[in-house]
Amino acid sequence: MPAGLDFDPTTGVISGTPTNIGQFGITIGTSDSQSTVYRGFYLQINSSATVNLPPVVVSNLSSPITRDIYQTISIPAAYAFTDPKDDP
């Protein structure tokens, strides 16, 4: 089983988050009172093409920003940050 994945023999579910890429041979089996049967398959773990990259600063804001009490401060997020992949 690839690192980061677990198999629950009660439910038959493979779950988790794989931590290595590659092709992994997995054999599963079941038995009754008369025989045992095995079946193998390959699980291919690829590097993720949908990595959520963090937003980045695209403009340096002057700091500190000084305003008097009760003055409005408005800094549009699009002015200071961008999301490199437009992902959520």
UniProtKB/TrEMBL annotation:
Q: Which domain of life is it from?
A: Bacteria
Q: Do you know which InterPro entries this protein is assigned to? A: Cadherin-like_sf, Ig-like_fold
Pfam families for this protein: He_PIG
Q: Which GO terms describe its cellular component?
A: membrane
SUPFAM superfamilies for this protein: Cadherin-like
A single Gene Ontology MF term assigned here is: calcium ion binding
State the protein's name. Dystroglycan-type cadherin-like domain-containing protein
Q: List the source organism.
A: Spirosoma telluris
The lineage is: Bacteria, Pseudomonadati, Bacteroidota, Cytophagia, Cytophagales
